[in-house]
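Let's inspect a concrete specimen:
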Amino acid sequence: MSDEGDPIHSLVRLLTRLPGVGEKSARRIAYHVLGADPDYARALGETIATLSERVRRCASCGAYTSRVRCAICDDPRRTSELLCVVARPMDADAVERARVFQGRYHILHALLDPLGGVGPGEFPLQPLLDRVAREGVREVILATPPTVEGEATALYLAECFHAEGVAVTRIASGVPHGGELEFTDPITLGRAMEGRRTV
């Protein structure tokens, strides 16, 4: 018996398209929504349905916000001299959760990926260069992911900013807190050794 017309099946199929959600998790979410208060299900559906209409990219940094400029860009306590460049909004969120950075962010929404159709000609470099010049940024911190695309993007940006006379740093990568050395991959362990500092 086919369940193609079944609304639960339809919801499960849609939920499995979300990153990190397999069929088991999708079924658990679907049954949770069904068992919850109908007002909750309606509010959840309405929020998702109107999300793209109510959220935009910050005019300064590219973060998702409901305003023209996000709260971080509008915060006078944040210094404009430090600019952390990340690939995705969730990367900026991760840095924020560490509570150690008091500068501002620039979200690329892209990485150099020639095989994926993003070469230097398609890469959103100019808005970043314009912003650095306009806001008097003294140091650009490259926080792109430690992937082939992330490393290529970091090298490309470093060359561009060195040509402009702007200081460029790259976030360190190393052994995670609480991690065991025997389970750490060789590349991460090698970078941890290269990036060691005096204590």
The first helix runs from residue 7 to 15. The chain has two domains: 7-54, 78-170. The CA atoms of residues 54 and 66 lie 6 Å apart. DSSP finds eight helices and six strands in the chain.
